[in-house]
# Entry
Amino acid sequence: MSIILDHVNYIYGSDTSLAVHALKDINLVIPDGQFIGLIGHTGSGKSTLVQHLNGLIKPTSGSIYFNGEDIHAQDYDKKKLRSKVGLVFQYPEHQLFEIDVFSDVCFGPRNLGLSRQETELRAYAALKQVGLEDDYFYQSPFDLSGGQKRRVAIAGVLAMKPEILVLDEPTAGLDPKGRDEILDQIAKLKEETGITVILVSHSMEDVARYVERIIVMNQGSVMFDDTPREVFKHYRELEEVGLAAPQVTYIMQALSKKGMPVKTDVTTIAEAKEEILRVLRGG
Amino acid sequence: MGIIRTERLVFEYIRRDEEGNVEGITRAVDEVDLDVRQGEFIAILGHNGSGKSTLAKHINAILYPTEGSVWVDGMNTKDDKDLWNIRQEAGMVFQNPDNQIIGQVVEEDVGFGPENMGVPTEEIWERVEESLKAVGMYQYRKFSPNKLSGGQKQRVSIAGVIAMHPKCIILDEPTAMLDPNGRREVVRAVRALNDVEGITVLLITHYMEEIIHADKVFVMDKGKIAMQGTPREIFSQVERLKQLRLDVPQVTLLAHELQKSGIGLPAGILTVEELTQALETVQKYRP
# Structure
């Protein structure tokens, strides 16, 4: 169960004078059960890349394999692929439309042709997975708060039982608590189900805290692909391409410059705290 | 009297069912008193649904108070005759840059506001030039907005507001959709407007790092002002902010965590420099 991208290129408007080379020779392996962060400045190719993963966009050249099968082969079942690779777009709450929360989440599985009972079981399970209380199930989705709406939208994708969940900036516009709640919920879901999660984010702090692997995109190419610790060591190069490291990384750099013998490859508050205490108490 | 003043401002949304019967009333803003002086940099924090945006929309008369009053530069927003003056003096920038740009070319977009105000053509061009320079976008004046990054588009939106020569500018989560670089650019441009041009700024945001330089911070909860003070006073209260679904900058949180572990640090550390200095002192005087 994995996705392989093999020499993928994508050019927008390739036969016009406005051609933009959005993806350049992308080679990636996305194995089962990883929690991956995808970062890059606006226009770096992140969204174009994720739209390739479930066949919404066909590469100009190169191939994409899902579980060993070429997804653009003539007889490949794309509908099935789209239920296996779930895409949650930016501001997914704009896509809610049903009269109540439960019906909205049922829409996807019902379209898969499942029985009513199976559809409802899946919708119920998905709403539980995103941590929505039963009280809200029969309310209009439009009466919910921003964070709740977003969870309903994510549940709509989860009800398709995807093996890979791609979230494009799931926390944009949410308050800090809402941000933490959604990400904690996704991390828990990943723990419990072993689903692969790809998180597209502009928050370096969030990425550092949750993911095990970071893919950095720049001008259509993969710039770094490694653990957060390794990627954020390149904070100067990241700054040059419009990104940054989490603020804690800068704190550790500043302390080190002042002569405090702390390790600088720290990416979360918890690590930083431990490291500073170690030096102050022991060192 | 301040440039923006509200007195016991109340705003109620009336919820109706499909037949138009009243289902209930939501009080989005609940007796808010504000007094903002000319030239201040004000930050407004609050969780989703706390009433921040509803409050902001009263300041340039997009919404009118259910009870109480709002004055902008001495003009009551309820007075219809002052509506256009109020909108010109208090400009607003929203979250999504794509919803605010209408021109085909950057300079044309920035000139839209003053043109509608009936400013003479020559002066429009002067205003466009100075506004684009103020946000560092002058070299892009001939570009199509489609070709710009999010941060650049948002700066063009800000230039479009400044070209109307407002006394204050209200920014409602202007960085929510931007990458780190775009956020930095926008925050830098907004601070420069405040420092250099003396424009009063009201910044609504969910990013705590953006407001450590504000003169004053208001925290909203359930339509009321729950906390107010300097950034240092506000961010010293880590636990209280967490109850209000908010956060503190990472550096403040790290300092707070170290304090809890018995390291003697002052409360309300806001910058990396402050923390490194404080830790140096701790290390020096360690027994």
Summary: DSSP finds eleven helices and ten strands in chain A.
